[in-house]
Specification:
Elements (H helix, E strand, L loop, with lengths): L5 E5 L5 H12 L9 H10 L5 E7 L2 E10 L9 E9 L8 H15 L4 E5 L2 H5 L4 E2 L13 E5 L20
The structure holds coenzyme A (COA).
The site of coenzyme A has 17 residues, from helix 1, strand 4 and helix 3.
Length: 171
């Protein structure tokens, strides 16, 4: 689906309040929401760990956002990233905006030389981007039935690939 007026671009300082509002609105009422998804992005930004943060903008308003942060394989290999959260305002969902954010975000980390990406999420949704379940890489405390990886370059490392500590239990 095409949304002609949609712009995907890196976040700017002025977007920060709108990003928090979009994340809160998108996750509100979701059974898997912890209520701290917007705070996670704030923590990553403050820690300098927001490797990529893209917004979806329509008519000057932020309607979606996606975040990527460094992830850590056990052997210390660099180049692995975590996707999340990703959020689209409820009124704009199911128009392909989430998919545009995911694909643009993966392009952004690939431009940084990414070797791979991890996430926890809905298997049916993320499979379309090439993510596959990988319980063998699931870190302690995360749900193996929702932990997915996408190998972008080379081989996948052995063992659990950890999220940044800012994720706590809300990856
Ligand atoms: C998940 C989300 C970012 C997708 O954005 P979107 O713009 O609606 O997605 P797209 O239009 O690209 O894709 C729509 C597809 O996603 C599915 N989808 C929407 N929300 C979903 C969700 N929470 N979990 C799984 N699938 C979801 C739709 O059923 C649709 O599936 P189909 O293509 O097979 O019909 C958006 O629905 C959202 O913000 N949800 C609440 C927050 C959230 O759950 N974030 C992800 C956490 S892992």
């Amino acid at each position: 689906m095409t949304v002609p007026e949609l712009v995907i671009r890196p976040e700017r300082d002025a977007d920060v309040p709108a990003i928090g509002a979009v994340i809160d609105a998108a996750f509100e009422g979701q059974p898997y929401a912890e209520g701290d998804e917007a705070e996670l992005v704030v923590k990553l930004r403050e820690a300098g760990m927001l490797t990529a943060s893209l917004v979806a903008e329509i008519g000057g308003s932020v309607v979606g956002q996606i975040a990527f942060s460094p992830a850590e394989p056990p052997d210390g290999t660099s180049g692995w990233y975590a996707l999340g959260p990703v959020a689209v305002l409820p009124a704009h969902q199911n128009r392909g905006i989430g998919a545009r954010l995911v694909r643009a975000g993966l392009d952004a980390i690939q431009a940084l030389g990414a070797k791979g990406c991890i996430l926890t999420g809905d298997v049916n949704y993320y499979a379309r981007f090439g993510f596959r379940l990988s319980p063998a890489h699931c870190p302690p405390g995360q749900p193996p039935g929702h932990f997915m990886i996408l190998v972008l370059c080379g081989a996948s490392p052995e063992g659990a690939i950890r999220f940044h500590p800012a994720f706590g239990d809300c990856a």
